[in-house]
Amino acid sequence: MGWWLLVLAIALYLFWRWTSLKSASIPHTLGLPLLGNALSWRMDPVDFLSSLKKRFGGVFMINLAGHRMIIISDPKALEDFHKADEETLSSIEATTDVGFQIVLGRDNVLHGSAIHRQILKDQMIQNKNEFVVDFDVVLGKALRIETQFHEGSVDFIPFVRKVILRATVDYYISHEISAKFPSFLDEFTTFEDELEEGIAKAAVVPRFLQRVILAPVEKKRFNLKIKVAQVVKELYLKKATTGYLRDLISTSKLNFQVEDDFGTIAEYCLGLLFAAAKNPSILCAQTFLFLLENSAQLDRAQRELEEVSAKFREGQVQVEEMKFVDTCIKETLRLTAQPSKFHRGTL
After folding, report:
1. CA-based, 20 to 30 A from 120: which of 4, 163, 205, 296?
2. Measured between alpha carbons, how far is 203 from 206 in angstroms, rounded to an integer?
3. In this structure, what is the dihedral angle of CA atoms 31, 37, 40, 43, given to the nearest 10 degrees?
4. pTM of the complete model
C-alpha cells in the first residue's frame, strides 16, 4: 500500500508541475503530462526548437519532464540575460537542478567556479605571456610522451585531446598524478564523456530519477577524487605544491586539519580539468584539420608559430603576436559554432 501511495504522490506532483505551466507569462508549450516535451526533444531537438521559434518568436519556454527551460534567440533578450546578476538569475541553483552537484560534487557547484575565477583573475591573466611560455614547455613534454604511445597513423582529435589533458594535469596540478596513476588520464576521459552523456539524459527525466541515472558517473568521480587527494596530500605534507595548485590551496582557505580538506581540493581540481581540457583540445584539432584543407594557409600559420616559438626560449613572446593563428581559431569557432547553453534559474 505504501508504494502505491508514493507513486500516486509523485504522479500528482508531476501533473501539478505540468498544469502549472498554463499560468506562465512566457510563451510555452505544455507537451504531454509528466513527460512534457521530453520525447520531442530527444527525437529531433533542432527541428523541435526551430518549429517553436517560428510559432513563439525569440523567447519561449519548454518543459522537459518537469524541468522548465527558457530558450532565448532574440539578441536583446540575450544581452539582458547575460547582464543579469546571480541574485536575479542563479547559475548555481540551476546547475544543481540538472545534476551537476552529483557528478562534479557539491563543493564544485557552490564554490569551485568562483575560486578558479579568482585565481585566474589575480594571477594568470595578469601574467599571460609567462603562462604561454610555461605551458608551452609542459605541452611539448606531453606531446613527446603521447607520441611514444602511437606508431603510424593516429585518430587525431582523441590524440590532441589526450595531449592537452596530460599537459593540463601536469601544469595545473602535478605530473605526480599521471606518474603515480598511469591510468588516470584514460579514466578521466571516460568520466568526462559519461558525465556529459549522463547530464543530457538527466535533464529530460524527473528530478527524483537523476541520482539513479548519474550514480555510475558519481562513482567514477569519487574514485578519481581519491587518487587526486592522495597526491595533493603528499605534496602538501612535503611542502612541494607549486603554481596553480599552491594558489588553489591558498585561495580555498582550508586548514587541512581533517582528511576531507584534501578531498575538497581534489574535487576542485577535477572541476578545473573538466572545464579546461576537453573543449580547447577539440578546438585545436578542428583548427588544424581546417588548415590541412588549404596548404598556403597552413604554411602561413606554421611560419608564424615558428617565429613566435623562437621567442619562447628568449622569454620575449607576446600572445598578441600570433595574429594569423588567432584569426584561424576564430574562424574555426565561427564554422563550428554551437548554441550557448547556460544554466540559470530564477530566485
Report:
1. 163
2. 8
3. -150
4. 0.71
Q: What is the mean pLDDT of the chain?
A: 79
Q: Residue 117: how many CA atoms within 13 Å on its side-chain side?
A: 6
From the list 134, 136, 148, 170, the residue with the least C-alpha distance to 277 is 170
User: Of 321, 339, 331, 318, nearest to 288 (Cα)?
Assistant: 331
Q: Within 13 Å and on the Cβ side, how many CA atoms surround 237?
A: 9
Of residues 198 and 128, more confidently modeled: 198
- Closest alpha carbon to 248 in 100, 112, 155, 341: 112
Q: For residue 294, is pLDDT > 60?
A: yes
The whole-angstrom separation of Cα 235 and Cα 246 is 10
Query: Is 235 within 8 Å of 241 (Cβ atoms)?
Result: yes
For 32, phi then psi, to 5°, come to -90, 155
Compute φ and ψ for 89, nearest 5 degrees. -130, 110
Q: What is the CA radius of gyration of the chain?
A: 23
Reference 218, options 232, 204, 199, 233; nearest CA is 199
Amino acid at 303: R
